[in-house]
Every structure is written in C-alpha cells, then in structure tokens.
Design goal:
It is a single chain. By secondary structure, this protein is mainly α. The chain folds into 2 domains: 32 residues, no CATH class; 35 residues, no CATH class. The chain contains 4 helices and no strands. The longest helix is centred in the middle third of the chain and has 14 residues. The two termini are 17 Å apart.
C-alpha cells in the first residue's frame, strides 16, 4: 500500500485543528501546517542520473568495461531515496 503522507498529514491537521489544544500541541499543528506548504521534492534530472551512471561505469573496473549496477542503485537511493 502506497501512502500519500502529505494528504494524511493534511487530514490529521484538519481534524485536530478543530479542537482547543495546549501550547505544545498548537506548535505541533503549526509545524504540520508549515510542512504542508512546502513544495513536493523533485526527483533527479537526466543530467544528474547521467553523472552518477558515468561514475558507476568508469569506476567499476577502472576501464569502463561494465556498469556497477548495485553501486549506481545505491548512489541513486542515497541521494533521492527519501523523497
């Protein structure tokens, strides 16, 4: 199941924003509201992927003979995996 975290956060904010809350929870609601206004992160461009692929290609054997697919996948996930 894929969860739309931003939609879930908006739904929770809307539900709890209708209650009178203490100062700590009000601050939490404000942080959630601010997070909801942030733009959606952008994925990698073709140029960025190309640079990582070139690096994986040229460093796998030192001669560019094969692509280190696992290294490439790890690099992509390390850079863009949390979006």
């Amino acid at each position: 199941m894929t969860t739309d975290w931003k939609a879930l956060c908006a739904e929770l904010h809307a539900a709890f924003n209708t209650y009178a809350v203490d100062e700590v929870h009000h601050a939490l609601l404000e942080r959630a509201r601010a997070a909801l206004t942030e733009p959606k992160p952008q994925g990698p461009t073709d140029e960025e992927l190309g640079k990582l692929l070139y690096y994986a290609f040229t460093t796998s054997t030192g001669h560019g003979e094969r692509v280190d697919a696992m290294g490439f996948a790890r690099a992509v996930l390390a850079r863009w995996g949390n979006q």
